[in-house]
Amino acid sequence: MRWNHRIKMFTAIFSLAAMLTACGGGAKQATTKEPVQDAGTAATTINSSDTSTADSSAADTSEDNAKDTSSPSAASDFASEEGKIGLDSTLEELKQKYADKLGYIRVPLNDHPVRRVSEAGSKNINIANYSDAVVGMNTGIPIHSDSQRLIDDAFPFFTTVQAPDVSYVPWEEATNLERAMVKTLFISREGLLITEDAMNNKDYSSKSFQDSMNFFEVTAKSESMAPVAQHPYDIPLSQLYDKARDSWGKLAAIDPSQDEAAFAKMYKTARTDANNAMGLLNVLLSTNEEERMEQTYGK
Q1: Residue 53 pLDDT > 90
Q2: Mean pLDDT score of the chain, rounded to an integer?
Q3: In whole angstroms, how far apart are CA 63 and each of 35, 60, 102, 166, 218?
């Protein structure tokens, strides 16, 4: 069964009826000017003496994406001295230099998006990604292509294609995490479609299938960092993404030629988890997100 222009198989909590109700409401506004630091993959807190030398790799399952806008050369000195991850910053510095009119801190991918933000009166440091893409923690480079073509294809898919009668915020008003999920979930959807074709044909030798498994493996790595939460609704979105990428990693770890039944079972889980994240993303990108969230979850 394909997903041709409609996300199916929502679980009860993200039923399609709830996803597609009502329209209108005010423009999306940031309800907090400081990052919410407890949102799953959004931020990592370490002691100032901790270091890391882990590497992350990039993967892209969409052959149609245009060239990558990330800049490896700009990130060549990203890993700072003494093995530290990210660039030392204060929250005030970030707000002054990178905050937009809604209060969201948006650090360009070519300007060290992963930052080490110190806490006043504490030795702890919050390591957070302030870009609008899922990036390698150690490099600041997106784990996938980050082209304008990808955005042009993916943003309408998660908005007007899913619920054309609903009003949506423009790309400029989406949070960093929402933007990152538009890109990552769109690529994951393509990867799951490729996986389904491979299962139907019982052919797991194609490059597209291997690229899909590689992408799922990369997203599941701890070094693959989603943007830090900067809006309360970023938190449930981050949680659903964490669940989805965990199931993607488990799917990629199974060799379907050795255990086709286990692979098929995990595929269903991975697809359901992806659908749940996609359904919530559609709600959060609408202008009446609060109303639709109440209709879905209750007050």
Answers
A1: no
A2: 79
A3: 34, 8, 34, 31, 17
